[in-house]
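Course assignment 3, question 2. Fill in each field.
Student: A.L.
Task: Predict the tertiary structure for the chain below.
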Amino acid sequence: MPRPAQRVVSLGYTSHDPLLALGVRPVAVRHWFGAFPYGVWPWAQRQLGDATPDVLTGEVSMERVASLNPDLIVAIGAGISKAEYTVLSRIAPVLVHEATDSAYGTPWDRMTLTLGRATGRLAQAQELVAGVRAAFADARRRHPAWAGKTGVAAYHWSGETGAFIGADTRARFLVELGFRPTDAVAALSGVNDFYAPLSPEDLSPLDGDLLLWVSSFQTSPDLVALPMRQTLEACREGREVFAGGVLAAALSFGSVLSLPFALNALEDDIAAAIDGDPATPVASAREAGLAP
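Answer field:
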């Protein structure tokens, strides 16, 4: 029986999160964005410990991967081509996304379980997945009124405003809490799409019971000044929550480690936003300038 992988190269932009959650410290990680050491964000730094993985940026260098002498290459969420897969397979076994998923669309739970099997830690992976599912279930029990309400995860950057849709991690975060997308946003979802830009003249698809902005604090002044945002009932009634900086990244990673981090940080604000009282302060909306 082959022994579990020991030297793992993580080429997926977020696959190092579940590996670290499993106690597997990759010999190399793929940098996505952010300036944290080794491309590891705060929710996973404890699991990284004193490890010092190589940080891979830009296009995948086959020579550099080979020099790391891996016994497993994780390319789930890496967007590699068939030609790159062929070359990498000559170096070590390569894990890629399932045919039913898009290149960057593997759900967090399936990725965690797949990596658990590949590293001989399936039982641990199952425990981790069960723990995250339980955290969301507990939140739903604490807030039964959320079930069936509409919620939209939206963005605003580079002058474009739109919604995260379908199986995107930011959209799924709200679904896990019991929300459903507005009918207009649900109608935008394509098979492989994860966001949909909207006409600047009509942002009404975003007008759910909850409007969660996933953006950056650098763009929040533009969002505050956006004229059509102010036509939304969610804006006028104080039903906006803002996830910027580290929280925006946590929702974008959508991993077994980042999702509980985001849930813990956002639950109180979501509750405040949709408690039926427009006067209830929403801390994140105030910090971003979206609320007085």
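Instructor remarks: The radius of gyration is 20 Å. The chain has two domains: 8-132, 143-287.
Grade: pending
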